[in-house]
Amino acid sequence: MAPSITPHEFVAKWSGDTRKERSVSQEHFIDLCRLVGHETPGENRDGTLVFEAGAAKSAGGQGWADVWKKGHFGWEYKGPRADLGKAFQQLQQYRDSLQNPPLLVVSDIQTIVIHTNFVNTVKQTQTLALADLETLEGLQMLRKVFFHPYALEPTLTIQQVTEAAAAEFARLADLLRRYGEQPQAIAHYLIRLLFCLFAEDVGLLPDGIFTRIIHATRHKAPAFTAQIKALFGAMATGGYFGTDEIKNFNGGLFEDDTALPLDSDGLHILERVSALDWSAIEPSIFGTLFERSLDPAKRSQLGAHYTSRDDIMLIVEPVLMLPLRRRWAEVEAMARELAAQRDAASGAKRNRLENELIRLLMAFADELSRVRVLDPACGSGNFLYVALKQLLDLEKQVINLGADLGLTRMLPSVGPEQLYGIEINELAHELAQVTVWIGYIQWHKDNGFAELKEPILQPLETIKRMDAILAFDETGKPVEPEWPEAEVIIGNPPFLGGKRLRTEMGDTYVDQIFALYDGRVPREADLVTYWFERSRAVITQGTVKRAGLLATNSIRQQQNRLILERINAKGGIFMAWSDRPWVLDGAAVRVSMVGFDGGEEPDRVLNGTAVASINADLTSNLNFTLARRLTENSGLIFMGDTKGGSFDLTPDQAEQLLSAPLNPNGRPNSDVVRPWVNGLDITRRPRGMFIVDFGVNMPEAEAAIYELPFAHIEREVKPERLKNNRVAYRERWWIHVEPRPALRKAMARLSRCVATVIVAKHRLFAWISSDVIPDHRLFVFSRDDDYFLGVLHSRSHELWSLRMGSTLEDRPSYSSATCFETFPFPWPPGQEPLDDPRITAISEAAQRLVAQRDAWLNPPDVTEAELKQRTLTKLYNQRPPWLDQAHKELDQAVCDAYGWPHDLSDEAILARLLALNLERAAKQGDAAAGAVETHTDDKE
């Protein structure tokens, strides 16, 4: 540890120092370490405190944080009289790459500014001048930065600030109503005021200008009104307010300089409200709270439940974001592969790969910027804001990856213009636009992006003020209103029971919608069902891909359910929360959330759990949590070998070792150079790979006698294995980390085994020779008969494995415990009647399937290039008629073995399998079976 320095010595040394940043910043930081008794970056040995930490900028490109301490802070220095606000913006761009530390610190030699960066709290700033470091309080603050950053976590949450702001504006609205102002005029004026408060705190208005006006005119209400009119006028077009330059805001919110008069009571409320941190308000609840605060009919709901961001995400994530994240996973993998190829290339090839990489990422960013989201009952814009933030966050991942890969050309292009809304209420319609803009501006500021272009508030003409379910043509005839075109529909349509329609909406309106939707929406159905039906219709027409809507849980019942049956008949419910607690108009209710499409989504999730299907009553009748592991299936499935290093050999490397002379023990290298297969050899084509394998316990001295293989792994494996955290892996570095002795013993009894890839697009089963070493991403079944492979490759087992397994991205994952050990074969394994003709039929069908596949994979007289295009994955992607027929014959033979009809639906097959599982489990006893756990590690 470096010698300490006293506060007096520190201040004396650095007072008046005007040297430039680069020449003194590290020396200054080292002195700070000495001042608080902390190790310096040079003394740190575990890489958790470093100078010049490499960090990707969210705006693109590679940057360097001046100092970084893991889990504590990012620290950026600037020279004398430099703008520390710019330094903070720079740190904001780095923070994701710096693992989002709780503190962001910016500094010059004379001043240290500490910004908190904690999730869901109001951001706070603490400034330490040089002289403050000679005080006990200042020194304690600095020690917290180095040693206890969470002691600086603000106690005030963003939700609390938003709720407090809404409550204050409710009081202001009450005052204006008492003055006789009209409700819409009050709402428009107060929305302007709150936006000014927000703009001031995020730096879009000159520093403190709105607060200065309030303080200067605190006891002169007419002067306040005059000043605010002048400020609104400047914001309408841009210009000057006194000596302060004002940006052009426009956007309809500041179309004129109208301001309502306030008295001293109103100004006192404004003075209190100006003390809040308006940059921290939460847009996802902001609109709802302000709508309640400005509407007397909803004032009683101010303290009631609001739709939080987490609630909204239950729809936005699976309906809007899931397909985009799947696509991004593919693009990201392609981008990283291109970058690796680029980095290994030079000259023109490198330039070509660089351009290809840029085009790939730009194309996906462009794809995001063209996504259109419609909320056909948008209220005050909460769903639209959350959707926008998720799109921006995903685009930031694209930008960050581009920066990580050395690209510098990307900036955010996702924007509010991608959001479409329909709202009939005038106040909510205006609030929705402001909510979206506040959220968009907040995101840009929080993520350190450049200034927004003017006008700041461009009109959001995509949010329409209209009725979403009833319109009239030029003759006055009721017609369905045209909805804006979008890829995705999300929202929370109005909850109103069918029996209350006439009371709340009037006979004329109700008769019109009854006639317009006759035959499609039952007359007894709740109002929300009209939004479901319209969404279903536009999905069927192909103008919309997916929809996710809220309803009360009565959507599952009686007449309402007919709407969901129509959805399932021509599309599919792929996501649902059937029954969740909620608060509506101050009363406790239960709601359902439903996501649906045209049938394209392969996965079904009900109440957060994967299911085979979702019925119109938002249930999945088969309760697979009851399934039990069957002892009759135990001891038949094994995970493959985990090598734990570069033991694998290319065909050329293996040939050199295999053709070498005998070793000093008189044995050939083929003893320890074995064929090796992994998932690629099954889903694509066999690559002829080998692996150096010294078995499960060969002593090092004995292994060393196999000179060339031992030398290979001593060079390629040993250095990395010696770094392994596990002692056994370090000490037995020449042995695979998990050689699976039980697997090897089981395979040794057979000439061939069945294998499947654990994670793959298609559930494929193939034969592997028993003399190969299977990789750990394979499951191996210790059976060598065609009947066994046939049952595994049947529709029955595939449906079961898909239902009982999980997914990785969009690829199903197979589990030994849940997919295989629970699966009821036609007869318990080992108890098959071998002379039964049904066994023979399955065996013959499996033989034909494998033979036809092999013939397709390896046709005679084709080029090597053509052979490379023939893989099992591509074959099953195409699924030609002959392959489909081969599987149908196999499936029919398996159905015969079960004694089932050939035309069972997927749901019926799963129901019968579950019943058979429970019947077998009951016979073996619950204690022996053991319940299937949700997360079961696959072990040999």
Automatic annotation (TrEMBL):
<protein>
    <recommendedName>
        <fullName>site-specific DNA-methyltransferase (adenine-specific)</fullName>
        <ecNumber>2.1.1.72</ecNumber>
    </recommendedName>
</protein>
<keyword id="KW-0489">Methyltransferase</keyword>
<dbReference type="InterPro" id="IPR046819">
    <property type="entry name" value="MmeI_hel"/>
</dbReference>
<dbReference type="InterPro" id="IPR050953">
    <property type="entry name" value="N4_N6_ade-DNA_methylase"/>
</dbReference>
<dbReference type="InterPro" id="IPR046817">
    <property type="entry name" value="MmeI_N"/>
</dbReference>
<feature type="domain" description="MmeI-like DNA-methyltransferase">
    <location>
        <begin position="359"/>
        <end position="600"/>
    </location>
</feature>
<feature type="domain" description="MmeI-like target recognition">
    <location>
        <begin position="766"/>
        <end position="826"/>
    </location>
</feature>
<keyword id="KW-0808">Transferase</keyword>
<dbReference type="Pfam" id="PF20466">
    <property type="entry name" value="MmeI_TRD"/>
</dbReference>
<dbReference type="GO" id="GO:0032259">
    <property type="term" value="P:methylation"/>
</dbReference>
<dbReference type="InterPro" id="IPR029063">
    <property type="entry name" value="SAM-dependent_MTases_sf"/>
</dbReference>
<dbReference type="InterPro" id="IPR046816">
    <property type="entry name" value="MmeI_Mtase"/>
</dbReference>
<feature type="domain" description="MmeI-like helicase spacer">
    <location>
        <begin position="185"/>
        <end position="254"/>
    </location>
</feature>
<dbReference type="InterPro" id="IPR046820">
    <property type="entry name" value="MmeI_TRD"/>
</dbReference>
<dbReference type="Pfam" id="PF20473">
    <property type="entry name" value="MmeI_Mtase"/>
</dbReference>
<feature type="domain" description="MmeI-like N-terminal">
    <location>
        <begin position="8"/>
        <end position="178"/>
    </location>
</feature>
<dbReference type="Pfam" id="PF20465">
    <property type="entry name" value="MmeI_hel"/>
</dbReference>
<dbReference type="Pfam" id="PF20464">
    <property type="entry name" value="MmeI_N"/>
</dbReference>
<dbReference type="GO" id="GO:0008168">
    <property type="term" value="F:methyltransferase activity"/>
</dbReference>
